[in-house]
Write a structure and sequence with these properties.
Length: about 130
Amino acid sequence: MEVQLSMLGIIVGDMPTALRFYRMLGLDIPAEQDDKPFVMHRMASGVSIFFDTVFAARYDPAHAVPSGGGYRSLFEFYLGDDSAVDATYARLTAAGYHGRMAPEQTSGPYAAMVDDPDGNVVLLTSDDALGAS
C-alpha cells in the first residue's frame, strides 16, 4: 500500500480563536466545538484535520510549544478557482489576520498566504491558470 496523508494535527493555543479562523477559511466546524480541548474535522477530500490543546502535551513528555511562528509547516487549502482565493484572502485579512502574500500567479498555482492565529502559514491555492494553459 502507498503511504497516504490521512490527518493533519494542529496544536493551538486557544481553541475558539483557532476555530474562528478555520471557519472563516471555509471549514464547517460547529460552534459548540469551541469549548472542547480536541476537535476533529473530516474534510470532503477524506483528509481529517484536528485541533489540539491537550493530546501532544499528555502523551509526549518532551512536548513544548515552539516560540514564534512562520514556516515550521505550510498548510495548503485548495479553493478551486482564483476568485475563491481572492475572496478568502480578502475576508481573512479584513478580519485582521496577517496576510503574508496577496493573491498572485506564482510559477505554479495562483496563490496567497495568511497566518493563522497560532503563527502557522496557510497557503490558499487554485489552478485556474494551470488548467487554462
